[in-house]
Design goal:
The protein is α/β, with parallel strands linked by helices and 472 residues long. It is built from 16 helices and 18 strands. The strands form three sheets. Strands 5, 7, 8, 9, 10, 11, 13, 14, 15, 16, 17 and 18 form a twelve-stranded mixed β-sheet that branches. Strands 1-2-3-4 form a four-stranded antiparallel β-sheet. A two-stranded antiparallel ribbon has the order 6-12. The longest helix is centred in the N-terminal third of the chain and has 15 residues. The chain starts with 9 loop residues before the first strand and ends with a helix.
C-alpha cells in the first residue's frame, strides 16, 4: 500500500539559485501550486525562501516548453569558465545567448536622485566616461556582435555628458542597427535647441523615455520629484521633431501598476511613440522604501495587467520572446490614428521560433518582419481562405486601412523583467540577452548579474568572497 502523504504542490524542475541574504549559491526547485509558480530554496545559514515566479502556470510552461529556439552565440567570448555561473560573467563560454541589447553607461552623474535606481546614480556622482573609454566600450560590443541589433546609451543621465553628441556620432559610425538613448527627459524638456540637434541623428535612433505615472505620488516615490510637467514638455518636443520614442515604465506593485492600460492608451495617441516597455523593479542598487515581500511584480502579473486594463490585446497577443522567454514578453499592434489592431496573435508562432535571428526588436528581423508585413498583402485569392490585415481592418468599425502602411504604424509593448536575488535561477541567467559593457575592461555582462555582483565595488566586496568559497 502506497503512502497517503502528498505534497501540496506539483514538482516541475530543479533549480540553482542564490540566497537573497548572503548571495551564496543554493539548491532550489520550481513547483506549481494554486495555479501559480514558486521557487523554493534553502540556505544553510538563512533558511527557507518561497518566491512567486509567475501567477500563470500555463503561460510559464509555454515559455519553457514552446517558445524556445536554439541559442545564438556571440562572435567573441570575454571570459572562461572558472568559478561557475554567475561568477564568470563577461560573457563566459557557457552563456547561452548573444547580446540582443547592449547597454553602454557613459556617466554616473544624474540630475535626479531616484529612490529607485539600479545604478545608484545622482548629482553627487560626478564621473563621466572619457571618449576613449566610450570608444573601447562600443568596440567591445561590435567585437562580440559584428552588427549589434540594439545598443542603448545610458547612465546616469547620458544627455548631460559634455560630449554627448560626439558619442552619438561615434555610435553612428559603427554597424549598429538600432541606437537608443535612455533618458529621464529633463534635458529634452528644457532645451528646444538640444532636441533640434538630436533630430539630426534620428534615423535608426530611439529615445527610451522614463514615463512611470500620470500621478504625483508614484513619481515622488520612484523619482523623488514630480515630473509630470517635464514629461509633457518632453513629449511635445519629441512629437514636433518626430523622434521615435519608447515610453519606459518602472513598475511597483500597488503603486503604479494600475496605470498600465492608461499609459498604453496614451502612448497610442502620441505620433512619435513606437511602443511601451514595462519594467518591474529589480531589487538592486538603490531601492529606498521597496519591500520585495510586498512590492515585487512578476512578468505574468504585468501581462495580466495589460490584458485587464487595455482593450487592445488578447491573451494570444502577449507572448514570450523566444531568446529569453522567462524575462521577456511582447505584443505588436498596428497603429493608425491612435487606434490599434493587435498583430502578434495573427503570426504563426513558428515564425518567431524558427524564423530568424534571436532578437528582442522583431522589426529588425527579416523573417519576422516578412511574417508581419505578409499580413498587409492584398493579392490573396478569396478561395485561399487567407485573411489579410487590410481585410481585418475593413471589418472594424471606425478603423480605415490607408495606403502606405509601414514601420511607423507598428506599435510594440514589451515586458522586461530583470532577475533579482529572490527569483534568481542559473538556468534563466544563462539565457539573458540584455547585457551591459563593463567600463574598465569591456566585458559584456548580463544586466541582471551586473547589478547584483559586478557594478562598482560589488565584484570585489560581494563576489570576491563567493568566488573563494566556490574554489574551496
Amino acid at each position: 500500500m502506497g503512502s497517503e502523504k502528498t505534497r501540496p504542490y506539483l514538482f516541475y524542475d530543479v533549480a540553482i539559485s542564490i540566497c537573497s541574504t548572503c548571495y551564496r549559491k543554493v539548491e532550489g526547485k520550481i513547483v506549481f501550486q494554486d495555479d501559480k509558480v514558486f521557487l523554493l530554496k534553502r540556505c544553510p545559514d538563512h533558511g527557507h525562501e518561497r518566491v512567486l515566479i509567475a501567477d500563470d502556470v500555463d503561460y510559464y510552461r509555454k515559455g519553457r516548453e514552446v517558445f524556445i529556439k536554439p541559442p545564438e552565440m556571440p562572435l567573441h567570448y570575454n571570459t572562461p569558465v572558472k568559478w561557475g555561473c554567475p561568477y564568470d560573467c563577461g560573457l563566459c563560454t557557457d552563456h547561452e545567448q548573444h547580446s540582443c541589447l547592449s547597454l553602454i553607461e557613459i556617466c554616473d552623474y544624474c540630475n535626479l536622485r531616484c529612490p529607485i535606481c539600479y545604478a545608484g546614480s545622482g548629482p553627487e556622482r560626478q564621473e563621466y566616461r572619457s571618449l576613449q573609454q566610450v570608444e573601447r566600450m562600443l568596440d567591445a560590443v561590435v567585437r562580440n556582435e559584428g552588427q549589434p541589433d540594439v545598443v542603448q546609451i545610458s547612465g546616469g543621465e547620458p544627455t548631460l555628458h559634455p560630449d554627448f553628441f560626439k558619442i552619438l556620432e561615434m555610435a553612428k559610425a559603427r554597424p549598429i542597427k538600432h541606437l537608443m538613448v535612455n533618458t529621464n527627459g529633463v534635458k529634452i524638456a528644457e532645451s528646444d535647441a538640444f532636441v533640434a540637434r538630436l533630430a539630426e541623428y534620428k534615423e535608426d535612433l530611439e529615445i527610451y523615455l522614463q514615463f512611470d505615472s500620470f500621478e504625483r505620488d508614484p513619481l515622488i516615490a520612484l523619482r523623488g520629484v514630480d515630473l509630470r510637467a517635464v514629461r509633457t514638455r518632453a513629449l511635445e518636443r519629441l512629437n514636433r521633431y518626430d523622434i521615435s520614442t519608447t515610453l519606459v515604465v518602472t513598475l511597483q506593485k500597488g503603486l503604479n501598476d494600475g496605470e498600465v492600460g492608461r499609459i498604453v492608451d496614451f502612448a497610442l495617441e502620441q505620433p512619435c511613440v513606437r511602443g511601451v516597455t514595462l519594467q518591474p523593479i529589480q531589487h538592486a542598487g538603490r531601492t529606498d522604501g521597496f519591500d520585495p515581500a510586498t512590492d515585487r511584480l512578476t512578468l505574468t502579473e504585468v501581462r495580466r495587467k495589460i490584458l485587464e486594463q487595455t482593450a487592445v490585446f488578447r491573451p494570444e497577443d502577449v507572448i514570450p520572446v523566444p531568446c529569453h522567454p522567462d524575462s521577456l514578453a511582447m505584443a505588436y499592434a498596428l497603429k493608425i490614428d491612435g487606434k490599434a489592431v493587435p498583430l502578434t496573435g495573427l503570426i504563426d508562432p513558428q515564425v518567431l521560433i524558427n524564423g530568424g535571428r534571436n532578437t528582442i526588436v522583431f522589426e529588425q528581423d527579416d523573417a519576422v518582419r516578412d511574417g508581419v508585413f505578409k499580413l498587409f498583402a492584398t493579392n490573396h485569392s478569396p478561395a485561399s481562405g487567407a485573411t489579410t490585415l487590410r481585410d481585418l481592418l475593413c471589418c472594424l468599425p471606425g478603423v480605415l486601412a490607408p495606403e502606405g502602411l509601414g514601420y511607423r504604424n507598428i506599435f510594440r509593448v514589451l515586458i522586461m523583467q530583470f532577475i533579482d536575488q529572490h527569483a534568481f535561477d542559473v538556468r534563466s541567467v544563462k539565457k539573458s540577452c540584455v547585457h551591459i559593457v563593463h567600463p574598465e575592461d569591456g566585458r559584456l555582462i548580463p544586466f541582471d548579474t551586473y547589478n547584483l555582483f559586478y557594478r562598482d565595488q560589488l565584484e570585489k566586496e560581494r563576489l570576491g568572497p563567493l568566488r573563494m568559497e566556490a574554489l574551496s
